[in-house]
Design brief:
Elements: E1 2-17, E2 21-28, E3 32-38, H1 46-49, E4 55-63, E5 68-78, H2 87-102, H3 109-125, H4 128-146, E6 171-175, E7 180-182, H5 184-187, E8 208-212, H6 213-224, H7 227-231, H8 237-255, H9 260-264
Antiparallel strand pairs: 1-2, 1-4, 2-3, 4-5, 6-7, 6-8
Helix pairs in contact: 2-3, 2-4, 3-4, 4-8
Length: about 270
């Protein structure tokens, strides 16, 4: 059976296939991760259009007998040209694409489509400092999509509100073994200092991360407030570093395997 298909698509990666052809990995809102072949020599106009992180309407010719799919046309809506000029943006986009691929869209192609395209479109319009916070927000929301995002409201030990007005906590601990945030009293950590570290001394159950109140408040805001409201929140460089260490650890642990982009671009990201 042969048929023509028209669908929205985001190109995740393109690799050489033979002398003149390319294998294209893409994300679609209905099918999730799928692959197609782009035929044609160096002069093919489609080779300049079917590029990583471009999105738009893609035209496919599917042959179910031969189990092959080829790209016949691509009406590009978003090029994300700034990614070619920024090493950070390029790595951040690659990380998001690898994450979608390794986690199979977190089992929800439509939600992954919305989240990933929203991140890439926002990354295109922002500068690098705000882009780093944007990456943290994207990864935290993706953890929610995976169903493994830890609760930022209540202490995992005493169940008291972590950010309630009555609490005097200004430092918190994330216990990786339990996937829970723990208040200052239950964790037995000092209330001063701003350094973030993986701390195996305070908790005997496994790796842990110390976070400032600003860091926990930011994660809570990402979970509960609108994207526009969260973008208006500023963070110190130390807070950004704390958040980065935590979400990078969580997202790789949730993927269940090493993320090549994260390993190779950690200094950039």
């Amino acid at each position: 059976m042969q048929r023509n298909v028209i669908t929205d698509a985001l190109i995740l990666s393109v690799s050489q296939l033979g002398e003149n052809n390319r294998s294209v990995c893409m994300l679609t809102p209905s099918e999730g991760i799928s692959y197609a072949v782009l035929y044609g020599g160096p002069k093919s106009k489609l080779k300049g259009l079917v590029s990583p992180f471009c999105s738009g309407k893609i035209y496919l010719y599917c042959d179910n007998v031969k189990k092959s799919t080829k790209i016949t046309d691509f009406d590009v809506k978003n090029f994300h040209l700034s990614f070619r000029e920024s090493l950070f943006k390029s790595w951040a986009a690659s990380l998001s694409a690898e994450l979608a691929l390794k986690t199979k869209c977190a089992g929800s192609p439509q939600d992954c489509w919305i989240l990933l395209n929203g991140f890439l479109d926002g990354l295109e319009l922002t500068d690098e400092p705000n882009g780093k916070l944007g990456l943290i927000r994207f990864l935290w929301r993706y953890l929610g999509l995976l169903g493994v995002r830890p609760d930022t409201k209540y202490c995992g030990v005493c169940d008291k509100g972590l950010l309630s007005e009555s609490t005097e906590c200004n430092r918190f601990l994330f216990d990786a073994a339990e996937n829970k945030f723990i208040c200052q009293s239950c964790a037995g950590i000092a209330g001063t200092g701003t350094s973030n570290s993986t701390d195996g001394q305070n908790m005997s159950r496994g790796a842990s991360f110390a976070l400032s109140k600003q860091a926990l408040e930011y994660l809570n805001a990402v979970s509960e407030k609108t994207p526009k409201e969260v973008r208006a929140i500023t963070c110190t460089a130390q807070t950004v570093n704390e958040l980065k260490q935590l979400v990078f650890y969580l997202i790789e642990a949730s993927a269940g395997q090493k993320l090549k982009t994260l390993e190779s671009g950690l200094g950039i990201l």
